[in-house]
Design a protein that fits this description.
Elements (H helix, E strand, L loop, with lengths): L7 H10 L5 H11 L1 H7 L1 E9 L12 E6 L9 E6 L5 E8 L7 H32 L9 H14 L5 E8 L2 H8 L1 H19 L4 E6 L2 E7 L3 H7 L2 E6 L3 E13 L6 H17 L5 E3 L2 H22 L3 E10 L5 E12 L2 E3 L1 H11 L2 H21 L7 E5 L9 H12 L6 E6 L4 H16 L3 E7 L5 H7 L4 E4 L1 H9 L1 H17 L3 E5 L4 H9 L4 E3 L7 E2 H11 L2
Parallel strand pairs: 9-10, 12-14, 14-15, 15-16, 16-17, 17-18, 18-19
Antiparallel strand pairs: 1-2, 1-4, 3-4, 5-7, 5-9, 6-7, 8-9, 11-12, 11-19, 11-20, 12-13
């Protein structure tokens, strides 16, 4: 074959620019290697110009980019090619010959072929960039997504520069109510504008990623971290002219170490945020070694819980409820105790952990079944039971079959519903509150007793008294403690609460009663039933069985 497809210079030139993965890299390689062919075609200058699109992605904030230029070139002779992009932009590629040279028709044909090839390579690289952006960018907000965050961390952790940054995990509080009130489409607009505000707060050196839903992660320089955190306390977002949302947040913060991995960073901010989420007072929590220790302990509890449940390490204890005027037993509460490795794990150490993980639901039904076994034993041995209250977490309220599931357990042991009282904690969430009202009605219709625990600490105590009908309201221990701690003001409040409950036809029980002075005041205001150490500590089923037998006399 006599001829060759192209010269060695052109082969080197195109081989070099084909390596480009980004447009800025394409332009850089183009400028670095154009000299290999400029002599062959007498090229004096190469530039790009655009219409309707920015050349920012090419490394310039204008619409004009000079790629190559000799000191002297022929200004009055130009070969220009115009190309239309897929997004309705126009790119002009302009070539000028060296000074005192005029291109022949054959040279112009070769140059036009080169221009076509350059545009194809440029378009290919631009398309590659857009696909890459789709992979690493959250399409709703425009910030990084999880994959983009992973690449960002991978690139920057290796260089060590992340050692000067602080990671901040941010969750918008109650954002679901915005979606419910204005719809998800408008909610998406709010979320997008919120993300833009975070970008502004993070500054030029900061980075923001969306972790899904209304959760964001930001990396900001250490010296700017405090300003960023203060700025996220409340971010105002407007829709239209008149609709404004003041969005507050909870945050977990971690100062990134020099040898941290992405996994280290994410685990730390998640742990810190989890503490902030549970706190009534702290909006922002900084990661500490104590938080790590607590989180490790919680993970261990969650890990061993299924085995402990299977091996029946949990046992039911009963704490008496007593009528104060007679001292007679009138009921009891089933309480859990965990025997593990030769000791007892305090309920405060594991119940909140299981509540947060959702595993508390399994434990609640385990306790219901253990209680039913005890009641079945009492009935089979002609021991008259008292009504036993069994605690159920508000998490159960999302189970539409909850009443059926509870009833099924009682049927299995042939226990009359009058012996079981389902005890619910006063909920702090409006949605849970509505579900609770429906559940209470269904349970009472089936003959179950229902009580409300920790009254006075939840969503709206007055609303609940107005709306709900239960068998018993349990005054939170804090009320009983305040009888002596806060004097007359507390007594006035408690007296009116008790009067209201009684007038509405419900019983009231005071929990945490320990002193005679408390007993005297409670009896005086018409609170007839008490539960507390003065009348009996939680006891094993065997000892409580003896109490039942004594109560029959």
């Amino acid at each position: 074959m006599d001829g060759v497809l192209c010269s060695k210079g052109f082969q080197h030139f195109f081989s070099a620019i084909l390596k480009a993965e980004t447009l800025s890299e394409f332009i850089r390689l183009l400028g670095e290697n154009i000299h290999t062919i400029s002599g062959e075609v007498c090229l004096g200058r190469l530039e790009f110009r655009s219409e309707n699109i920015s050349l920012e992605e090419l490394g310039t904030d204008s619409q004009h980019c000079i790629v190559f230029s000799e000191e002297e070139y022929a200004h009055d002779e130009c070969l220009e090619k115009e190309f239309e992009t897929h997004d309705n932009g126009i790119v002009h590629i302009l070539l000028y010959p060296v000074k005192d040279h005029s291109w022949s028709d054959d040279e112009k044909d070769s140059l036009e072929f080169m221009l076509q090839t350059l545009f194809v390579l440029c378009a290919k690289t631009r398309a590659f960039n857009e696909v890459h952006d789709l992979l690493v960018t959250d399409q709703l907000t425009g910030v990084l997504n999880r994959q983009g965050l992973a690449r960002y961390c991978e690139n920057n952790l290796l260089t060590g520069i992340m050692g000067g940054y602080t990671a901040v995990f941010i969750n918008i509080r109650n954002f679901k109510f915005i979606n419910q009130n204005i719809g998800t489409r408008s909610g998406d607009k709010v979320l997008k504008r919120y993300a833009q505000k975070l970008i502004e707060l993070a500054g030029e050196d900061g980075t923001v990623a969306r972790m899904g839903g209304d959760n964001f992660l930001a990396f900001v320089r250490d010296e700017e971290a405090q300003d960023f955190i203060r700025g996220t306390a409340m971010i105002s977002v407007t829709l239209g002219e008149f609709v404004k949302f003041d969005l507050t947040s909870k945050a977990g913060v971690y100062k990134i170490g020099m040898i941290d991995t992405m996994s280290d960073i994410l685990n730390a901010v998640y742990m810190a945020y989890a503490v902030a989420k549970q706190s009534l007072n702290d909006r922002v929590v900084y990661f500490t070694s104590e938080i790590f220790k607590q989180s490790t302990t919680e993970n261990e509890i969650i890990a061993v819980f299924p085995e402990a449940l299977r091996d029946e390490e949990f046992r039911v204890y009963f704490q008496p409820k007593v009528r104060m005027d007679t001292g007679r037993l009138c009921g009891c509460e089933a309480l859990v105790r965990w025997y593990r490795s030769g000791g007892i794990v305090p309920p405060n150490d594991f119940v909140p952990v299981l509540e947060r993980s959702g595993a508390i639901c399994d434990l609640d039904f385990y306790m219901l079944e253990a209680t039913c076994k005890c009641i079945r034993y009492w009935l089979d041995n002609d021991i008259c039971p008292v009504r036993v209250s069994v605690n159920f977490s508000k998490i159960h309220l999302h189970n539409t079959r909850l009443a059926d599931d509870i009833h099924d357990v009682l049927k299995r042991y042939n226990i009359p519903t009058r012996y079981i009282e389902i005890e619910l904690t006063e909920t702090s969430c409006h949605e849970d509150y509505d579900a609770m009202l429906a559940f209470v009605k269904e349970m009472r219709d089936r003959g179950f007793g229902v009580s409300i625990d920790d009254f006075g600490t939840g969503y709206s105590s007055l609303n609940m008294l107005k709306d709900i009908r239960v068998d018993m309201i349990k005054l939170d221990k804090s009320f009983v403690d305040s009888i002596e701690e806060h004097g007359d003001n507390a007594r006035i409040v408690i007296r009116n609460i008790v009067n209201t409950i009684v007038e509405l036809g419900m019983e009231v029980i005071a929990e945490g009663v320990e002193k005679l002075s408390q007993v005297n005041f409670l009896e005086e205001i018409g609170c007839e039933i008490a539960q507390g150490y003065r009348f009996g500590k939680p006891m094993e089923s065997g000892r409580f069985t003896n109490e039942l037998i004594s109560n029959m006399g």
